[in-house]
Hints:
Elements: E1 7-13, H1 17-28, E2 33-37, H2 61-73, E3 79-83, E4 86-92, E5 95-100, E6 104-112, E7 116-118, H3 126-129, E8 134-135, H4 138-141, E9 149-153, H5 157-166, E10 172-176, H6 186-194, E11 198-201, E12 206-211, E13 215-224, E14 227-231, E15 234-237, E16 241-243, H7 246-251, E17 274-276, H8 288-308
Parallel strand pairs: 1-2, 1-6, 2-3, 6-17, 8-15, 9-10, 9-15, 10-11
Antiparallel strand pairs: 4-5, 5-6, 7-16, 12-13, 13-14
Amino acid sequence: MSSVIQIYDSIIIGSGPTxxxxxxxxxxxxxxxxxxxxxxxxxxxTTDVVENYPGFIRLTGLELADKLQxxxxxxxxxxxxxxxxxxxxxxxxxxxxxxxxxxSFETKTVIFATGTKYRELKVPGHDQFKxxxxxxxxxxxGFFYKDKTVGVVGxxxxxxxxxxxxxxxxxxxxxIYRGEKIRPEPINMKRIEQNVKIEIITKTNVTEIKGxxxxxxxxxxxxxxxxxxxxxxxxxxxxxxIPLSDLAKTLGAKINNKGEIEINRESKTNIPxxxxxxxxxxxxxxxxxxxxxxxxxAVYSAYTYINEKDVVQPT
Length: 315
């Protein structure tokens, strides 16, 4: 492992909108900052249309991520971006050591913007047909289902967006949800209701995925039109996200029962010098814009911490 050659004011772990927005603000505050993430742009890059980020009426998730990254990179004097995965974060005296597989970095503060990963549907057939008819990203894989029939599991706004996206290719889209009614944002509920390709099946779970080389059908726990087996060419899963908080938990950050990092209004955790922002935190409303705002709070808190505390660079 290479030796530490410099100390950063802050290392931001995660390079989605939250991490990139925080990096931009850190650059403006003349903080020597390193952003480490294994997917620049984060999972918003798999979103087809973003309509709720101020300043942009409509753009793709990838376009938004690119713009945020370009803005962060404009402060190249202070901001570095590294495509890598952090394996460990630990406290060392008045500083923190952040490790990847082959490198080690020292920093005065740490900002967790690690986000989330897709929650998988744990039923028989899932692993067998993953990427062979079972998918988690319509934007990535939807074009394979032109003029075919697909299902979307979930009832959230994300699931509704996925169903609407799939109508660009599929001839029929079933939304399969365990609850009594789906719960998207009102504008997307209206779009669902007006789209003749979408049919909603509620109070129903997918209990098995069946097929041969690819998906052919799913088994339901509640009959649909008298049958418990529904023929599908593909199944897209949108049943929520899992916080990527293991690094913070190991460091000693307080985690709630959902696996989210607990923060206050200044994005502070229970550990001095450690902050968190975005989908990884215990804030209830999670959007790109709220994550970026929390990232800015985290940077300001880190800046204040560095300037109020006598953090001495090791010799």
